[in-house]
Design a protein that fits this description.
33 residues, mainly alpha, 1 helix, 0% strand, rod-shaped, transmembrane helix, transmembrane, membrane
Length: 33
């Protein structure tokens, strides 16, 4: 149960980082347009 929770947290964390990177790239493209 606890391991599953940590796995879920890791999944959310990695997806959150991916979303953040996409957002940063989007902002850069928008600024340099």
């Amino acid at each position: 149960m606890f391991g599953l929770f940590i796995q879920l947290l890791n999944l959310n964390f990695s997806s959150l980082i991916a979303m953040l990177k996409d957002l940063i790239v989007f902002v850069r493209l928008y600024k340099f347009r």
